[in-house]
Amino acid sequence: MKKLISVIIGLLAICALLAFGAHNLQTSSGSNGSKVLNLYTWGDYIDPSLLTKFQKQTGYHVNVETFDSNEAMFTKIKQGGTSYDLTVPSDYMIEKMKAAKLLLPLDKKRLTGMQNYDPRFMNLAFDHHNKYSVPYFWGTLGIIYNDKFVQPGSIQHWNQLWQKKYRNQIMLIDSARDVMGFALASNGQSMNTTNPATLLAARNKLNKLSPNVKAVVADEIKMYMIQNEAAIAVDWSGEASEMLAGNSHLHYVVPSEGSNLWFDNLVIPKTAKHFKAIYAFLNFMSEPKNAAKNAEYIGYATPNQKAKALLPKAIRNDRQFYPDNRTISHLQIYQDLSPELVGLYNDRYLEFKMHH
Amino acid sequence: MQRKQKLTRNTAYFVPYTLWIVLFVIAPVILLIYQSFFNIDGQFTWANYQTYFTSSTYLMMTVNSVWYAFLITLATLLISYPTAYLLNETKHPQLWLLLIIMPTWINLLLKAYAFIGIFSQAGIANQFLSFIGIGPKQLLFTNFSFVFVAAYIQIPFMVLPIYNAVSELNPSYVNASRDLGATPWQTFSRVIFPLTLPGVKAGIQAVFIPSLSLFMLTRLIGGNKVITLGTAIEEHFLTTMNWGMGSTIGVVLIIAMVIIMWLTGSSKRRPRKGLTK
User: Which key words are in the record (chain A) (predicted)?
Assistant: First the structure.
């Protein structure tokens, strides 16, 4: 009997410890003090020195928590529990979060820096009149090539990837939407197509690309391209800028016939609590000086046109990362597709990956 | 009274174990099976299973998974059996065993990244190939490198049970077999191997089953040129949010694992106690 009692006491003690631990974790990640801001963002997506500066200026301490996919962030916000004040979803995810009623509208009267943003990047389909979101960074999908293996300037269009001479030379980013997307663009189709036959045609075209595909990988692409492991890669501009910084032989091209244009915007999820801090932060990040500093640190393109003017000339005039208006006019933003269509894109993509 | 108390005491010992099994084994499996009967809109359906067994993509993937798991197990076995056998002959088998187990203390991801460095164009492996005059070869993203790295990771789990079986083998049987005129091959195939078979079976279970659902290595080392069911499960849970389909594949994998357990399970004709030491 004594043993039984001690076992039960032991179990209770473990439960108590776990409960205490869980309580502790919750309070530490969602600090409830009044002078804080809980920022939920992509890994390494803000210049840390700006956070210190923000705290010095306003007294608000910023807790940064990170996610690595829009979907993971969506699930966590939907569950609630942690009081995230600001998060940075991409375009289609803003649409999805809006539909799921997970976002709070911005109080425009409390925002001071909205006139600093480039009107081309405001009032877009995923958020009309910027009711919910403030632009943070934007970028494209494109081709990175190494001029040691590829004649400079000889790759300008998606269809050139299919040439026989690039056999086993190309690395693709492991993302259904982007790989299917560039195949669709190469066929002159919309990257948001809802037509199953068009998707099938895109997959068949991708299957023909597979002899040229060396690997379908994720973040590792950066490392491989810097180490001259592959001649060509298809990846996002933000990743490309990091590669270019690591290897001077690399170049980035946005095919002019069309590609993806993406946005990461700051939004207020319904879990938000510290509204004074939120607006202080949004206004702080809209200040040209701060936005420019952030853009220089992260290497992505800033939608803040006054900040862009402050950037060094070499960055500001870099057509690779700030493409001209003609190219921009051919770029397409991903729309939020129905779950069935997302499934279809992924099934076709999986079939392509199986085709070897 | 005394008896009854003893009984309750014994049941008390089972409480933590039962709780663990129910909470972390039985409940998740039931949830997984339950989830597999729902489509993406949350309606009850058999369609997930129908899709699985009529889709050439999923069937091909299943064949792929089993094939690669088989290759990995075979490679592991071919390396581990002689290793375990020789280990038993050495002076300090425990020390050598420790050295073999040591890599399992290192995180899987770190080991995978280390292999990326070794196999890359400018890596040590290619430097060596250039040195002996073969010239650099594409090593990463090949089926070979995938099986190699997976086997490397699984070897300790195969060596351990085989070593246990070999060390329990009574050497007098081997001596008797030799004395009675058996050739070394006969001694091995008729005496040593059958007596260590339980260890081999345990090793196969420990390697084949996890190998069936490897997914991270398929991307990191295989460059997604090797696609297994693990890849599809990851995609359904993380990208398409089609948990029903992901669960269905999970259930199929569980069934496949049960079959393996059953095939390699200890048969009822266990070797008599006297045969081992």
Answer: Periplasm, Signal, Transport
DSSP A172: E
Give the residue from chain A lying closest to B62, CA to CA: A354
Asked if B220 reaches chain A (Cβ–Cβ under 8 Å), the answer is: yes
- Give yes or no for B180 touching A (CB within 8 A): no
Q: Supply A13's token pair.
A: 């003690």
Cβ <8 Å between A1 and B8: yes
Residue of B240, B241, B245 for testing the chain A interface, max A β-carbons within 10 Å: B240
Average pLDDT, chain B: 88
User: What does the pLDDT average to over A12-25?
Assistant: 70
Q: Does the residue A15 lie in any domain?
A: no
| CA distance linking residue B224 with residue B48, whole number of Å | 24
Residue B160: band (very low, low, confident or very high) from pLDDT cuts 50, 70, 90 = very high
Give contacts of A168 with chain B, Cβ < 8 Å: 138
Backbone angles phi, psi at B38, to 5 degrees: -120, 140
Q: Which helix (H) or strand (E) holds A199?
A: helix A196-209
In a domain, A201, yes or no: yes
Size of interface A-B (CB pairs under 8 A): 88
pLDDT tens for each residue of A73-108: 998 898 887 889 999 999 999 999 999 999 999 999
Nearest by CB to residue A350, choosing from B12, B19, B235, is: B235
ipTM > 0.90 (yes/no): no
Nearest-angstrom CA–CA distance, A248 and A256: 23
Decide if A354 and B57 are in contact by the 8 Å CB cutoff: yes
Instruction: Supply the pLDDT for residue B136.
Output: 85
The answer to whether residue A126 scores a pLDDT higher than 60 is yes
* Average pLDDT value over all residues in chain A: 91
Summarize the confidence of residues A201-212 as an average pLDDT.
Answer: 96
Superfamily name with CATH number, domain B56-275: MetI-like (1.10.3720.10)
For chain B, the domains span 56-275
Q: Give the pLDDT of residue A1.
A: 61
Contacts of A258 (CB under 8 A, 6+ apart): A185, A188, A191, A330, A331, A332
Q: How far is CA A210 from CA A128, B72, B259, in A?
A: 39, 25, 35
Beta bridge partners of A37: A62
Domain residues for A225? 140-261+322-354
Per CB-CB distance under 8 Å, the chain A contacts of B232 are 350
Mean pLDDT of B271-277: 44
Q: Which of A339, A346, A356 sits opposite B235 (nearest CB)?
A: A346
Chain B CB within 8 Å of residue A336 CB: no
In a domain, A62, yes or no: yes
Cβ of residue A356 closer than 8 Å to a chain B Cβ:
yes
Contact between chains at A11 and B15 (C-beta distance less than 8 A): yes
Q: What percent of chain A has pLDDT over 90?
A: 76
CA distance A206 to A176: 12
pLDDT digits (tens, 9 = 90+) for B71-87: 999 999 999 999 999 99
Number of domains in chain A: 2
At residue B274, the pLDDT reads 43
